[in-house]
Specification:
Order of helices and strands: HEHHEEEHH
Strand content: 25-35%
Strand order of the largest sheet: 1-2-3-4
Number of strands: 4
Distance between the termini: 51 Å
Largest sheet: 4 strands, mixed
Shape: flat
Helix content: 40-55%
Oligomer: single chain
Length: 141
């Protein structure tokens, strides 16, 4: 019998909780800054934005800064966000009739951009041999 089988169902559940808490504690932090232009700053909007952009650091697995600018011009609710981490910089803009939906759309757009960037980065790691390498390998055999 292995060690896991001896623990039982509750022991494994407790071990999962401990691992999950450690993983959450080790997650890189995201510093979110919210700027309000032509609108009264509200804690509800600021907390909502911080909650929506807190996961960005987990996506790129590094600490990062997200700067969100929310603007209101008559009936137009506009938002733009810039996420920076090292040399990586991602920005997005959205405009709707509600600031909460602007934040949702920006979080989705930035998440898609970061996911696409990470996929490109992974694809670059595995490269096929160059023509010179193939030809030199063919000459040696």
């Amino acid at each position: 019998m292995s060690k896991i089988d001896k623990q039982g169902k509750r022991g494994r559940a407790t071990a999962r909780k401990v691992r999950r808490a450690a993983r959450i504690a080790d997650a890189p932090a995201t510093q979110v800054t919210v700027t309000f232009r032509h609108v009264e700053p509200s804690d509800a909007l600021r907390l909502y934005a911080e909650r929506k952009f807190a996961h960005v650091g987990k996506l790129i697995k590094r600490t990062c800064q997200a700067h969100l600018i929310l603007t209101v011009d008559k009936y137009r609710q506009h938002g733009e966000v810039t996420v920076k981490s090292g040399r990586l910089s991602v920005s997005a803009q959205e405009e709707t009739k509600d600031l909460y939906s602007v934040i949702d759309l920006l979080a989705d757009k930035v998440g898609r951009q970061l996911k696409k960037h990470l996929e490109k980065f992974k694809a670059k790691k595995v490269r096929s041999p160059s023509t010179g390498e193939v030809l030199s390998a063919g000459e040696e055999t």
